[in-house]
Amino acid sequence: MPTMNARLLAAFLCLAALSTGCVIEDNGPRYPGDVRLTWTFDGARCDEMRDVQGVDIIIGGERLDNDGRYPCSANGFDGIILHDFAPGAYTFDAVAVGYDRTALFTYHGTFVVDGDVSVSINFPVGGTGTGTYAEINWKFPTEAGSQYPTCGQAGVAFVDARVDDGAWAHFNCYEGSEGRMVSTPDLAPGQHFLEVVAMDSLKRPLYYYGGPFTAVAGIPATVTAETYAIGGAAVGWELYEGNVRLSCSQAGVTEVGINFQDIYTGQWVYGVAGQWFPCNESPAIFEFLRPGRYFVSFQAPGTGGRSYKSSGDLAPIDVFAHDFPGVQDALYAPLDRVR
After folding, report:
1. In angstroms, rounded to a whole number, what is the distance separating the alpha carbons of residues 324 and 232?
2. What residue ranges define each of the domains in the chain, with the CATH number in brackets?
3. pLDDT digit of tens for each residue in the chain (339 aa)?
4. Which of 35, 38, 160, 185 could form a disulfide with 82 if both were Cys (CB 3.0 to 4.6 A apart)?
C-alpha cells in the first residue's frame, strides 16, 4: 500500500483540525512562498459578471496591500498574487463586491503554504445573485463561404431589439456588429425570446431575427442574431353570407385570424394559432416575412356559433425581400360563412 509523504500528511491533518484549533507539528523543512489566488463565478469570468467590481480578501492575522481590496480583473488576470507568506496553514474569506461596495457573493476556504501555492476560488452564484442579462450581437445574410457583410455593406443604419415583447431598444448598427455587443436589461433566469429588426437610414425594415435563448442566474447569455432578409404583405378580408356582404357587427365577428403557409414546405409561419386582428382593422400589414410564396388562410368565429373562412383555392401571394406593400396595395379575400 503506498504511503503518504509526511509533509502532505501533516498539511492534510492540520487543515482537518483547523476548526478545533489543533496544531500538527511537522519536523521536516518548510518553505515560505507566494499565494496565487484566482476566482470565477460558477465558472464565469469577471468580464461576464458586469455587477462585480472587485474581490476583497481577508486572511486572519495578515495585513494585505490595499487592505485586501483588489479589482475583479487586472490586465486580463482574474485574481491576485500575494507574496512572501510564511509556511503554515491559513483560513481566508473572499467577498465579491459591486460598484457600491455591496457584498454580492462570498467564499470561505483554506490553504497551506509550503512553497508557492495556487488557490482556486469559485464563488457560488446560482440563484443568489442579482439576476442575469444577455450580450447580443447581430449578423446579416451572406453567401456560403464568404464573410458576413458590415453594416454599411448590408445597407443597415439602425437596429431595434427587444426581449419577451418588452420595449424596443434603438441602436446604431455598429454598436452590435463586427465583434461589438449590446446588453439587455436585467433578466430573470429561464427561457426568453429575442427579436431584432435591422433598418436602413430611413428606418425601413430590411432584416429580422426572432429566436429563444436561455438565461442562467449570474451568468450572462451570449446571443448572436443571425438575421434574414424580410419582406411584407398587406391582406384584407370581406365577410359574406351567400352573396350578401356583411359588416363585422352583422356577422357577429370581433377578430379575424390569419396565417401564411409556405407552398413548398407546408410550414405555417405563425404556428397553429395564426395572428389575430380586430375585424374592423382590415387590411392587416405584415412586415417580417421571409421572401417566398405563401398560401394565406383566414378564419373568423362569429356569435351564435357562426363561423367564416376563406376558400382553400385562393391564389398564393409572393413576398419579396425589402418590399413592403401598404394599405393601398392590399389583397382582399372573401370569407364565406361555413357554419
Report:
1. 4
2. 6-123 (2.60.40.10), 134-229 (2.60.40), 231-337 (2.60.40)
3. 344 343 333 444 444 444 444 444 455 668 999 999 999 988 888 988 878 899 999 998 889 999 999 999 999 999 999 999 999 889 899 999 988 888 888 888 889 899 999 999 998 876 444 567 889 999 999 876 688 999 999 999 999 999 998 889 999 999 999 989 998 888 887 889 999 999 999 999 999 999 999 887 767 789 999 999 999 999 999 999 999 999 999 999 999 999 999 999 999 999 988 999 999 999 999 999 999 999 999 999 999 999 999 998 889 999 999 999 999 999 999 999 999
4. 35
And the C-alpha cell for 114?
509550503
User: Which is nearest to 234 in space by CA: 332, 330, 335, 334?
Assistant: 330
> What pTM did the predictor assign?
0.58
The residue count for the chain: 339
Number of C-beta neighbours around residue 283 at 10 A: 21
